[in-house]
User: What shape does this take?
Amino acid sequence: METKTHWRKLLKTKYLVGDEIGKEITVEIESFETEKVFDKKEQHEVDKLVIYFKGGKKGMIVTPRKAKDISRVTGTSFVEDWVGKKITIYPKNEKHFGEIIPVLTVKQDFSQTKV
Assistant: This one.
């Protein structure tokens, strides 16, 4: 069976995207920044939270949904407290802008959930 490459895998992106990891990985949050990022919906640059991982070259844009998931996994809503914590991310196919693409999703570790 011939393996083919989707065009998104060949694009050079500033931020980590689902096409780049291909599988579930556990990463340690090293730092965070607020950066200006072009927003397709808004059609201009907006401030976005970006987290960087230990040993990684690219940051991951944190959407409100990802922030809630990271807060649940780490047990804190404070970004300063996320540094040094490990999270698991994976690509999940979702429909965005009329196209189904793999987006980065934070896996909730229910074994760490406090009741």
About this structure: Strands lie at 25-39, 44-53, 59-62, 86-96, 99-107.
